[in-house]
Amino acid sequence: MTQPAISPPAGHRAHRFGDVVSVVRALTPGYPVYCLRPALIAASARRFLSQFPGTVMYAVKCNPSPMVLDILYRAGIHHFDTASLPEIAQICETYPDAQAYFMHPVKGRAVIKTAHRVYGVRYYVVDHENELAKVLDETGGGPDLTIVVRLKTERADAVLFNLSSKFGAPPDEAADLLRRVAARGCRTGLAFHVGSQCSDPSVYRDALALAGRTAADSGVGIDCLDVGGGFPAYYANMQIPPLEDFMAAIRAGLKEIDLPPTVELFAEPGRALVAHGCSLLVQVQLRKDDRLYINDGIYGSLSELCHADIRVPVRLIRLDGRPAARLRPFVLNGPTCDSLDVVPGTFDLPEDVREGDWIEIDQLGAYSNAMATRFNGFYPETFVEVHDAPPAAAS
Amino acid sequence: MTQPAISPPAGHRAHRFGDVVSVVRALTPGYPVYCLRPALIAASARRFLSQFPGTVMYAVKCNPSPMVLDILYRAGIHHFDTASLPEIAQICETYPDAQAYFMHPVKGRAVIKTAHRVYGVRYYVVDHENELAKVLDETGGGPDLTIVVRLKTERADAVLFNLSSKFGAPPDEAADLLRRVAARGCRTGLAFHVGSQCSDPSVYRDALALAGRTAADSGVGIDCLDVGGGFPAYYANMQIPPLEDFMAAIRAGLKEIDLPPTVELFAEPGRALVAHGCSLLVQVQLRKDDRLYINDGIYGSLSELCHADIRVPVRLIRLDGRPAARLRPFVLNGPTCDSLDVVPGTFDLPEDVREGDWIEIDQLGAYSNAMATRFNGFYPETFVEVHDAPPAAAS
Q1: B265 with B293, same domain?
Q2: A385 lies in a domain?
Q3: Which residue from A110, A111, A339 is facing B163, i.e. has the nearest CB?
Q4: Which residue in B164, B286, B378 is closest to A84 by CB distance?
Q5: How confident is the model at residue A395 (pLDDT cuts 50, 70, 90)?
Q6: A-B interface: how many C-beta pairs under 8 angstroms?
């Protein structure tokens, strides 16, 4: 591994446009185009960095586009929550001064070894004694290593996905794991994840209380505490308190538990930093009454709209003439031959929408390109930068 | 476009092994491995070619791996159902003597133009007058062009996915489209798709009767008829008649309708040719009681197990010692951080399965690698050839 002199990354800059209409004029794209709004992503990152009383790791899985990572890096995010060797390699090879943290509770042996020896990763999450044994086997353990025990949290109604259904040790097992970690001479940590798109700040406070009890029960002083992800994006159909309220709940929760003042504190936002900073420009390829056949769908950028009750704003763009003022609900059909490739729900668009029109679908910065397949030969991969206000700003 | 002398393709051959255990011994893979069984795929292709009374097109979307395409090509499949420019390019650039057919009812304008001008594609499916107008605009129409009208079929209970929910013109509109095609001097065709994984041969007979009535109503002699895909694979949990019964139903259906003897006949099998010709080798990375955390999941090769009630055989492979004879049901958790990444249902495996064991999951040749994402940095892409009997042969 050559280690280049540390300098701002070479830069994965997309072509820049003043606004989305200019993108359409310049490219008249028959393929989907991701429209990044760097200013929005950077502002979210800086807001989180200034408000969170610890280290902010970006959850790479949420949007691993090199352009998104560069925007975040330039905004001051230099710590990354990574869950696989490709994610670790992407971060460590692009940003030599950044830190990758292996925050996945289940890892392959060869992957642990490579993360440790090749990429120098020093933080590893575990939620089971056998995983702890693997990490110790493959890294050798020791005081350079921080082993973070992932704690199972109570199922909260206020979240979109309950990650504790798959990961996390119950409190008594977590306390036992902490003792084992300490006994092996490693630095100790506790982590939790309240679940995705959390709409209730008190969920963090409750999870912190559980973490505090677990740490106390273990009898081990912990060196780090990771409050995880789950910080919400502001989708139109959800009532979400401001970020300040989440930070206040975290500060209150921290005060209530007895942690050493030297404890390292981490958070892992993903969606909250990027969801509203990228829209998708699609083209209408055919209209059948109230059904529009567009060039992206559930196997491409829109899969999350199937799993989560997220409503995202849309606007029509037409180059030759003005669309009707009156709106009508339309169903969006994706481009594959598959009959499942239909976006759930309807989207209000001008009643005269027609083949050749473009639709900007907003707030698709999270879990869109990250989850795209190449099914049927379709794969959205064009990114541009735009500097206008997004459709969400109007709604 | 240079046209090289026609010869067998250069060959995308995977590394060859006698059996799956040899793969495990040689690679001890910590990553997922697709185990192709070329003899099974070739046998299915030859069976279909010998029994279907027309031209067999392979539906590329089902498994577009270059190795799978080569096996099919060498077995005699030289016609391909393609639905996007990348699929058309893949076929035409790899197999200069093969034919790509643009069988997607909704196409982008630039894509139609490129398919026609660059790749010489001559068959296009439409199911709406505006799509017909697009195809005529972009190709210029004419007697070299066959325009195939896709007919909406009745919803059949015997299929897994009802493709007519998304595509197909009702019979009266289809007849009108046929007249428009003929009036523009193009060759005419009718197509239908009964739906995926059809378990009842009579569904084809009914669809043929509908096609016959539509052709007669149109008053236009049709030049080609495409009975589509939907031919089933033989999964363990389904009662499926033999392929001969489907062919008998198609022959009977054809006899009952009045078609000119010169009509070109097509079928588009996908799943039926490849499903049982590829298994997936995964490794157990962690066990928690009855939950196994493996290195592939619903964002990789196993997504179809979420959407379809398909049961596939599994077998354990262990290099150091023998697994227990007694089986127990286990839940398979995928490798991403996502809580949805859990395979529905359970899989019976030796009760002492443990970290480091491998599991061969059979009958994943269809809609597996074709639908894989790179979510969280995981992407299964290793293919090997094996020449043993698959787990399904034992069940």
Answers
A1: no
A2: yes
A3: A339
A4: B378
A5: low
A6: 161
Q: What is the mean pLDDT of residues B120-132?
A: 98
CB contact under 8 A, A107 and B371: no
d(CA A163, CA A268): 14
Which of A160, A339, A354 to mutate to test binding with chain B, by most B CBs within 10 Å of its CB? A339
Cβ atoms B349, B316 nearer than 8 A: yes
pLDDT tier, B1 (very low <50, low <70, confident <90, very high otherwise): very low
**Does residue A162 sit at the B interface (CB-CB below 8 Å)?**
yes
Q: Which residue of B has its CA nearest to A299?
A: B371
> Chain A: nearest CA to B248, how far in angstroms?
27
* Sign of the dihedral defined by the CA atoms of residues B296, B297, B300, B306, in that order: positive
What residues are paired with B332 via a beta bridge? B292
Listed residues A274, A294, A329: the one ending a domain:
A274
CA separation for the pair B144, B135 (Å, rounded): 13
The C-alpha atoms of residue B99 and residue B80 are separated, in whole angstroms, by 6
Residue pLDDT, tens place only, B226-267: 999 999 999 988 889 999 999 999 999 999 998 888 999 999
- Give the minimum alpha-carbon distance from A5 to chain B in angstroms, rounded to a whole number: 27
Q: Which of residues 20-49 of B touch A (CB under 8 A)?
A: 30-31
Helical residues (DSSP H) of B184-242, grouped into ranges: 202-218
**Which range is least confidently modeled, A172-176, A304-308, B43-47, B282-286?**
A304-308
More confident residue, A222 or A309: A222
pLDDT of residue A361: 98
Q: How far apart are CA A17 and CA A20, in angstroms?
A: 7
B163 to each of A338, B3, B210, how far by Cα in Å?
7, 36, 16
pLDDT tens for A55-85 read: 999 999 999 999 999 999 999 999 999 999 9
Give the model's pLDDT for residue A237.
84
pLDDT higher than 80, residue B6: no
Residue at B169 is within a domain: yes
Is B291 found in the same domain as B201? no
Q: Which of A105, A165, A286 sits opposite B130 (nearest CB)?
A: A286
Of the candidates A107, A162, A336, the beta carbon closest to that of B339 is on A162
For residue B59, the enclosing domain spans: 38-274
- Structural domains in chain B (count): 2
**What is the ipTM score, two decimals?**
0.94
What's the CATH code of the domain at A279? 2.40.37.10
Is A149 in the same domain as A257? yes
Taking Cα atoms as reference points, which of B163, B177, B98 lies closest to residue B130?
Answer: B177
- For A121-161, the pLDDT digits (tens) are 999 999 999 999 999 999 999 999 999 999 999 877 778 77
Residues 6 or more apart in contact with residue B2 via CB below 8 angstroms? none
Lowest mean pLDDT segment, chosen from A6-10, A20-24, A170-174, B377-381: A6-10
Indicate whether A262 and A121 sit together in one domain. yes
Q: What is the CATH number of the domain that holds B123?
A: 3.20.20.10
- The whole-number average pLDDT for the span B325-336 is 98
CA–CA distance, A124 with A146 (Å, rounded to integer): 6
Report yes or no: B355 at the A interface, CB cutoff 8 Å.
yes
Q: Min CA distance, A122 vs chain B (Å)?
A: 19
Which tens digits make up the pLDDT trace of B140-156? 999 999 999 999 998 77
The DSSP line for B24-59 is HHHH--SS-EEEE-HHHHHHHHHHHHHHSSSEEEEE
B81 Cβ contact partners less than 8 Å away, ≥ 6 residues apart:
B57, B58, B59, B60, B61, B101, B103, B229, B268, B270
Put simply, whether B246 touches A (Cβ < 8 Å) is no
Q: Select the residue of A64, A299, A356 nearest B371 (Cβ to Cβ).
A: A299
Q: Which of residues 93-122 of B touch A (CB under 8 A)?
A: 103-111
Average pLDDT, chain B: 94
